[in-house]
Hints:
By secondary structure, the protein is an alpha/beta fold. It has 2 domains: 2-97 and 227-279, Rossmann fold, CATH 3.40.50; 101-224, Rossmann fold. Helices cover 44% and strands 16% of the residues. It has 11 helices and 10 strands. The protein has helices at 12-21, 43-59, 70-84, 99-107, 133-138, 140-148, 162-167, 172-189, 209-215, 225-239, 260-270; strands spanning 2-6, 27-31, 64-67, 94-96, 126-131, 153-158, 197-200, 221-223, 252-256, 277-279. A 6-stranded parallel sheet has the order 4-3-1-2-9-10, sandwiched between helices. It has a 4-stranded parallel sheet with strand order 6-5-7-8, with helices on both faces. It is globular and about 50 Å long. The two termini are 18 Å apart. The chain binds D-glutamic acid.
Amino acid sequence: MIGVFDSGLGGLTVLRALVARFPHLEFVYLGDHAHVPYGNRPSDEVVELTRRSVEALYKRGAKLVLLGCNTATAVAARRLQRVWLPHANWPGHNILGIVAPTVEAATQTPWAVTTPQYPQKYMTDIIAVFGTTRTVTSGVFHEEIRKRCPRMRVVQQASAGLAGAIEDEAPEAELDALVREAVDGILTQTDGEQPYRAILGCTHFPLVEHLFRRHLAPSTRILSQPEVVANSLEDYLERKPHYTDCANPGGLTLLTTGDADEISARARVFWPDVPAFEPTKT
Ligand code: DGL
């Protein structure tokens, strides 16, 4: 069984791609709606909330947990993988994040390769990264992309309110204004030059991809994070097939720390045939 975690509903964009790609695996999803959004919280709090959710998914039987959340990945993944997990009582369990596959796709460079290769050394594209405040201040996309492509210009823009507004089903006009503001923030930094590529570095943002599409130039390619994460997980599971063991192939359980009825109703707006959420605690 594979666990997928997000602060709220955003990770469903990733989960949906995984369920489509791996119909014979079993997934359990946890949305920490009691604490969403994470993006404006202090780092230590994000680490602790993420740890509790990962542990809740381990307790449900997931041996591998994918953080379907850029904020949790940017702030907590490394600390949990290197500091917490080796001393926690969860042998044979693991945690994966979603920044690595995104950086791999954006730079066309495997994660393990941390120096610029030819032709990456000479790539001078502008790449726009949209994310939560915490993801942007972590600098992880900037740092990891520039390690591999030092001439690429990485322009980041935090959108403090967008993930929360998507969770709260804010009216389209409000979402549109927030996306427009974020795109304008990028263009101010580039003096109007259009980015070659855009990373929607928050798993909530694909839910308003049409608005990003509206405000970005037609020439800007939006990288599909759910797609690249599915590709990367496929590769990982080929190397670690024991994580594909499951008692209930095709099974899908959705958990929330919030109000299960309310969250189920909201989730259906994004994914019409999604199963109902069950309440849980972390
Ligand atoms: N969906 C999450 C992300 O990818 C977090 C949104 C939030 O909780 O602020 O960053």
